[in-house]
Amino acid sequence: MPKFLVRGGPLRTALRELAATVEPPVVLLGHSLGGIIALDTLIEAPLPGVRLLVTVGSQAPFLYETGALPHLDHPEPLPGHVPAWLNIHDRRDLLGFAAAPVFPGRAEDLATDNRQPFPAAHSAYWSDPAVYRAIAERLP
Q1: Residue 135, pLDDT above cutoff 60
Q2: Which InterPro entries match (predicted)?
């Protein structure tokens, strides 16, 4: 089990403090474990300046469904204070999961095809121009 799931308090605190120093609107973007940290921090309590969450290759939907997301028990819905959420995943990335079916009406999925086998697919998002376009189109 990742240490974040057991001892994530300092990471959530650091993220909160950092977000508080940035002029709104703030976009939180997290890849893999970073997406879990960002989502869990937003679930725990509102971050007033954050207008968009972007997760890329994230296991957060899977952790939620298995009861392992620290601040949200399945089947509780996302708190209303969680901002708009763009979740980017690739079908070849065995560590990236769709969020829209798990959080209907709260998460928007972008399925990409980076044409890379696993495990390379988990990092290939950053070579896909469609990923950058999708993020840019949603920036507040």
Answers
A1: yes
A2: AB_hydrolase_1 (IPR000073), AB_hydrolase_fold (IPR029058)
